[in-house]
Specification:
Pfam families: PALP (PF00291), THR4_C (PF24857), Thr_synth_N (PF14821). Residues 92-334 form the Tryptophan synthase beta chain-like PALP domain. One of its GO terms (molecular function) is threonine synthase activity. With 471 residues, this protein is of the alpha/beta class. The chain has a domain at 92-109 and 225-432: Rossmann fold (3-Layer(aba) Sandwich). The chain has helices at 15-19, 40-46, 51-60, 68-78, 81-84, 113-131, 144-153, 172-179, 195-207, 209-214, 225-242, 260-270, 287-294, 321-328, 333-347, 356-359, 361-365, 374-388, 394-404, 425-432, 459-468, and strands at residues 3-5, 30-32, 92-96, 99-103, 135-140, 159-166, 186-192, 217-218, 250-255, 275-282, 296-298, 349-351, 367-371, 413-417, 453-456. The strands form 4 sheets. Strands 3-4-14-9-10-13 form a 6-stranded mixed beta sheet, with helices on both faces. A hairpin with a 2-residue loop joins strand 3 and strand 4 (99-103). It is globular. 48% of the residues are buried. Bound molecules: pyridoxal-5'-phosphate.
């Protein structure tokens, strides 16, 4: 399988070449040249496979530069009941007639990002060993991504993680999750500033090409194709659990921010998995909902990005969206460039409302969308507790609300559970008056010794710290 850039760069690359890269050289995102197709015979063969074997089957359609036995071993080592809590890895439970929750958040950091990041950690270790190379991952986090990356890379050979976060601005639980890691290859850097300062530092360091090369700086951000590919697997696993045979359609609702998770659903659907509808659930930051309602994609300024109670969906610009739009415009790289480079550069928006491709988007690609507010979130959390004795986190609550707006008779609706409620305890307390239960392994983590350095919001200070710790 070869990979191309959404912006038309002539080079074609293999999987392991793009694994350690971020954007394509022309600023585009990597996508496979085509989507491998599955038919009912393949689905029949895959139904009932353990999760790790299903992952191997799907990944091997996209990865032909890792020996099959090695890839199989990587999948087997990643998706274990020890790491993800159950034999099913992503168990499905029926909440009410036809509405299901797919549990993706029982990994080490209690958010769905572990599903992809744990695989990425093992792929990185494998590929770096093969090349005899090292990588220093530099990132910025306000919560879920940073901890998922650290738990995936801890103790891995050839990898160090330098994770910046805004000092004192994460929830105490999220902070404790990260700072209690004592592994030598994990470096927590608390920055005196806000999340945007952290992101600016990462950008400034990455733009210093000399430094970047000398210290082999890389990222694990959500545009990484391997992360997206890993997420395709749980759409298949959810489908098999929600149906008894392979000719029935299923719909999915996906709490969305950077469009990575739901883009994986799009890929599964393009492969031929019978998905009827993909519902994009947003919070008050409704860039994506606005697009699917109107055809206008309007990037928000930082000042217009609301701080909400489903904070992992607080985005102003969805970094994976370009992948979907590439398919939407018929994989025409020239047209894609005119939208994402010219129009977004000039006016911060593009408009497909008059385009026949957009008007067919819901029909051809199955997309629908909804938006929720803080009040909706609280109401859904209360209602789900009262009627089903089930606690959901604020992001999953946004999903449930959206799902109910797009139910179709006879079509199971699977809502992806993107985090466990304990990660967002303050909102649960606001809704219910009490804290959610905490998995035993996280009992008392706030009191553990912390491994963190505090630095000013200054890229030079961060560079000096990296240089000191890379020998
Ligand atoms: C990252 C995250 C999301 C958003 O996922 P995207 O792939 O960025 O769309 C939603 N919910 C939670 C809990 C997350 O951590």
């Amino acid at each position: 399988m070869n990979y191309l850039s959404t912006r038309g760069h002539p080079d074609r690359k293999r999987f392991c070449e793009i694994l350690l890269e971020g954007l394509a050289p022309d600023g585009g995102l990597y996508l496979p040249e085509h989507y491998p197709q599955v038919d009912t015979a393949m689905l029949a063969k895959w139904r009932g496979l353990p999760y790790a074997e299903l992952a191997f089957e799907i990944l091997s359609l996209y990865i032909d530069d890792i020996a099959p036995a090695d890839l199989k071993a990587i999948c087997a080592k990643t998706y274990t009941p020890e790491v993800f809590g159950t034999d099913e890895i992503v168990p499905l439970r029926e909440l009410e007639d036809g509405v299901y929750l797919e549990a993706l958040s029982n990994g080490p950091t209690l958010a769905f990002k572990d599903m992809a990041m744990q695989l990425l950690g093992n792929l990185f270790e494998y590929e770096l060993a093969r090349r005899g190379a090292e990588l220093n991952i530099l990132g910025a986090t306000s919560g879920d991504t940073g901890s998922a990356a650290e738990y995936a890379m801890r103790g891995k050979k050839g990898v160090r993680v330098f994770m910046t976060s805004p000092d004192g601005r994460m929830s105490p639980f999220q902070q404790a999750q990260m700072f209690s890691l004592q592994d030598e290859n994990i470096h927590n850097i608390a920055i005196a500033g806000v999340f945007d300062d952290c992101q600016d530092i990462v950008k400034a360091v990455s733009n210093d090409l000399g430094f970047k090369r000398k210290y082999r700086i890389g990222t694990v951000n959500s545009i990484n194709w391997a992360r997206l590919l890993a997420q395709v697997v749980y759409y298949f696993a959810g489908y098999f659990q929600a149906t008894a045979s392979n000719d029935k359609p299923v719909s999915f609702t996906v709490p969305s921010g950077n469009f990575g998770n739901v883009c994986a659903g799009h890929v599964a659907r393009m492969m031929g998995l019978p998905i009827q509808t993909l519902v994009v659930a947003t919070n008050e930051n409704d860039v994506l909902d606005e697009f699917f309602r109107t055809g206008i994609y309007r990037v928000r300024a930082a000042a217009d990005t609301h701080e909400t109670s489903s904070p992992s969906m607080d985005i102003s610009k969805a970094s994976n969206f370009e992948r979907f739009v590439f398919d939407l415009v018929g994989r025409d790289a020239g047209k894609l460039r005119s939208l994402f480079v010219d129009d977004l550069g000039r006016q911060g928006r593009f408009d497909l409302s008059g385009d026949p491709a957009f008007r067919q988007a819901a029909e051809r690609f199955g997309f629908k969308s909804s938006r929720s507010t803080h009040a909706d979130r609280l109401a859904t959390i209360r209602d789900t507790d009262k009627r089903f004795a089930t606690l959901v986190d604020p992001h999953t609550a946004d999903g449930l609300k959206a799902a109910r707006e797009h139910l179709a008779p006879g079509v199971p609706m699977v809502v992806l559970e993107t985090a466990l409620p304990i990660k967002f305890a303050a909102t649960l307390v606001e809704a219910l008056g009490h804290e959610p239960a905490r998995p035993a392994r996280f009992e008392g983590i706030e009191a553990l010794p912390k491994r963190v350095v505090r630095l000013p919001a200054d890229a030079e200070a961060v560079k000096a710290y990296i240089a000191q710790n890379c020998d």
